[in-house]
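Deliverable D4.2, example record:
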Amino acid sequence: MRRTLAAGWACIILGLGACGRTPEAPTTFVGSQPPTPSDVVLELASATTTLRWSIDGSGGVDSYRIYRAVDVGDFLLVADTSDTEYVDSDVARSALYTYEIAAVLNDVEGNRSQAISGSPGVYGITLEGGVAKTSGSSIIPGSGNINVDLVAPVGTVAFRLSEDADLVNGTTRLLGTGATLFSLSAGDGVKTVYARFFAAGGVQSELVSDEIILDTRAVILDVTEDSGGSTLGAGSVVHFTLVADARGGAATVDLVAGETVVVDNIPLFDDGAFGDVVAGDGVFERDWTVPAGIALANGLVRGALLDDVGNTALETAATTRLTIASAP
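Output generated by the structure prediction step:
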């Protein structure tokens, strides 16, 4: 059996070209011999392998023959194609597949390409532990530097991350060199991060990706109270409302006289309880019963919001004032 397996770190990644020993000399053919396929890349996925290659010269060839060896078996012809790409779906994750490609011109088969080998496997990335939304990072909130968890089979040596599917702006990094951080682009919204993994000798993974929502700010849209300007006493009920720009998080109101906080951190709700009308709509509400012993003249109702990813909103006051005179 003839086999040349790609190996060694000197040919890792950046060139992505095939590596290994020169194949054995081919049989001498009669007639014009077609050029040898080059720049062979083997892309691995969980249930397929994909070969891509190029050919020198402008005259073209008639077709390409794909030879495959499984584990320690002999090379067998598995396909004849006119494309410069071949997808092999008859594969299993536990097996090692080695491929060679030969061009055919006028029924003459040329030299086979250097052999390239790989095993199908599972590849993936997870952003910030799989949460749907982030403020920028669990390490430094608002920084935009998120944690990326990587999944790749044994033999993978490097990876590249980018928000562009073509990975042109990505930087190749060695796998297993500590925590993996990725800096998201500026601007809130849905971010998609793409990844490709690499082994030696032109072997790479399929393109994988994950999405996350970047949310770096919390905004209070409105704060209201419904006293209507009347003076409230002990046992009176006032309805507070805080409207947020997004759902989730925690909201409170303080009752403030001048620079003095008379009542602080009255919790509001967005769960359909305690006077909240609709659960989960981003409108935090509360029917609050005035306790005894509070005096507040023309006081502020000041709202605060901490959203579901840790962003703190600028405190915002209701446009109306609240007066309370409740006897001890």
